[in-house]
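Quick one: structure tokens for this chain, please?
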Amino acid sequence: DIVLKLIDNQEVNKLKDVATPTSGEIVFNQAFRKYLSENPKHTLVLRGGHVQRYEMIENPKQGTPVYIDRERYLSDSKAGTKAYDHLKPRIVYQEGAALDNWRRIIATYLPANNICGHKICYFVDNHYDDYAFLAIFNSRVPEWFFRFISSTNSLAAYQVSIIPFPKIETH
């Protein structure tokens, strides 16, 4: 009952009214393989394990580091595309958390010039202050709502988009 009231309440935004979720710039597939390397002189591609609640960690528990030749990648990419999203700071979150984890929504602030693998999702066109947005997104109501609507560990954009989000006056 309360879920329907939150969804139907005109005084409450849906997250998609505030920001748009999208997956990380780099997909570990054939199309991106020519840019990827094990050379630490290149730019580290951040993965889901780097993202913790309110912090990024240097050494995630899983996976080996993967690097990208950023200059080559950008020279083959058009200006204004997703390839350039890393030039701005962002709010990022793990696309998938362990089902038995104490939380499904695990988000933090990511400074500019960091490139994300596809298991890190982030928000574009955020209309709120980044830190206010992060505090709300990492709070109990979005977590509770997400657990109510999903039994999986994947935070799909279409599900994240409908999370109730407060309306905040911006000046």
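Helices lie at 2-8, 30-33, 70-75, 130-137, 140-149, 157-160.
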